[in-house]
Amino acid sequence: MQEITQEQVERLIHLQQIETESIRIKKIVNSVYEKISERNSRIVNFRKMIDEKEVALQLMKDRYRLFEVEFNERATRIQKSKETLKGVSTHKEYQVLSREIDDNVNQNKKIDDLLIKELEEIEQQERELNERKAELVQLETMLGKEIEEIENESVEEKQQLEIIERKKEEITPLILPKLLAKFMKISNIAGGLAIVPVENGTCKGCHINLPPQKYIELQRGGPLTFCQQCHRIIYYKKPEETNL
Questions:
Q1: Same domain, yes or no, for 108 and 41?
Q2: Residue span of the structural domain in which 115 resides
Q3: How far apart are CA 158 and CA 184, in angstroms?
Q4: Are residues 75 and 187 in the same domain?
Q5: Are residues 38 and 67 in the same domain?
Q6: Which pLDDT tens digit goes with each residue over 130-159?
Q7: How far apart are CA 214 and CA 236, in angstroms?
Q8: How far apart are CA 97 and CA 82, in angstroms?
Q9: Is residue 10 part of a domain?
Q10: Is the pLDDT of residue 49 over 90?
């Protein structure tokens, strides 16, 4: 235990009040950031979905062009074969060219059917993509307004947080370095609550009853005292004092 003045204890109490208020406001501000982040994520995910649809549409168009190229190449071969057919001199050559023409014609019929289906699908996907893009504009507008409203609601809290941080900067140099270090260590371990009052013999940090003799010593003041249960710094709270 360490001998400290009552003034130092009061500074710790004041610092704790500042820290407690800071934690409260930071929770509010963080919840604001979470709300904004959630809305931004919705926009990002929607854009990602549109990007994926655009990639899929482009692949369909690439496939359509490949079919189209094949169709045109076969049509060219059919035309050349028909021209060649006019000049063949043997029945065998005639049969070979005729089969080749028939095969290409049949293949082009299949390709033509595929082209029709592919084109219908491309047009359908383009319509859906345009609808999604229009929805994205609406979503960005709607969520943009919500984000602006959320940010406006947190302006006061952010201002309060700045004031609190300035108060913290003012008081921390007035506390003994070793005492401040002990306070911060306990605060980190105990969820931001490093120093608590003892009321009617009960620690307000963990609600354990102090041994009578320790409570009497605490009332007298003197050495820095810690709760045997939660290990927080404790101080005697007079009945007329207000809660933290």
A1: yes
A2: 29-157
A3: 23
A4: no
A5: yes
A6: 999 999 999 999 999 999 999 998 898 989
A7: 11
A8: 8
A9: no
A10: yes
Q: What is the pLDDT of residue 242?
A: 42
Dihedral over alpha carbons 132, 135, 141, 146 (to 10 degrees) = -110
**CATH number of the domain residue 44 falls in:** 1.10.287.1490
How would you write the chain as a 3-class SS string? Answer: CCECCHHHHHHHHHHHHHHHHHHHHHHHHHHHHHHHHHHHHHHHHHHHHHHHHHHHHHHHHHHHHHHHHHHHHHHHHHHHHHHHHCCCCCHHHHHHHHHHHHHHHHHHHHHHHHHHHHHHHHHHHHHHHHHHHHHHHHHHHHHHHHHHHHHHHCHHHHHHHHHHHHHHHHHHHHCCHHHHHHHHHHHHHCCCCCEEEEECCEECCCCCECCHHHHHHHHHCCECEECCCCCCEEEECCCCCCCC
Mean pLDDT of all residues belonging to the chain: 92
pTM of the complete model beyond 0.70: no
The answer to whether residue 2 sits within a structural domain is no
Q: How far apart are CA 234 and CA 206, in angstroms?
A: 11
Question: Which residues lie across from 233 on neighbouring strands?
Answer: 195, 226
Cα distance between residue 52 and residue 63, in whole Å: 17
Residue 3 is predicted with a pLDDT of 62
